[in-house]
Design goal:
Elements (H helix, E strand, L loop, with lengths): L6 E10 L2 E11 L4 E5 L6 H7 L5 E8 L2 E2 L7 H5 L1 E4 L11 H7 L11 H7 L1 H5 L10 H13 L5 E5 L7 H16 L3 E5 L3 H7 L2 E6 L2 E7 L6 H7 L2
Parallel strand pairs: 3-8, 3-9, 6-7, 7-8
Antiparallel strand pairs: 1-2, 1-4, 4-5, 9-10
Amino acid sequence: MSDVPVLELEGVHAFYGGAVILQDVSFAIAAGETVGLVGRNGAGKTTTLLSVYGVPRVTGEIRVDGTRVTGAPAHKPTSLGVSLVPQGKRIFGNLTVEENLLLGRASRRRGSWTPDAVYELFPNLGRGRDRSGTSLSGGEQQMLAIGRALMAEPALLMLDEPTEGLAPVIIDAIVVALEEIRSRGTALLLVEQHISMIQRVATRYLALRAGRLVGDGPVAQLTDRAVQEQIAL
């Protein structure tokens, strides 16, 4: 694997209007690594992901595969290999499952993810490839959102609360899928409030508190009371 991080933030501050959301955040994610980003509501987890695309106003350095993307057009990180599964899924309800997936090809990156590969990962989608997005269950919509992001052939897949509101059986299916995605060499950055989900999937955690990075270590540390108190979970 390359020694160049797939994602690196250095001294990043993020702003919405006059409000400071992130303060001096620095971390790096290695190729193939699986990292959980934890913290209470309002800690800045979603803003961290969106900062990669310049959605908030950002100062500092953000690099994808060694290329600076701070201030770049929003499509630049995707073209370099970062895909985002946003909170709330945001699939296109008027399009079919397969049409939604094909939208993920806009990055024009080459790789092995095809609709059939996604259907193998999520058989429910394969059985309903001609169904409209609005006819899918919440769990199926989340699977479709993940599949669409994979079609961009990411080196890093970022997921924002992917298990929110889902039944345990669907969460189990998504965990299995994430393990398969990871086995193919894709790095994962997973935003979750549920520590149990981070412990199931990730090997390392990053913790935010009030917009500052206050923790970075192996997920086993998340069971320590001192760490939990520091993060304020």
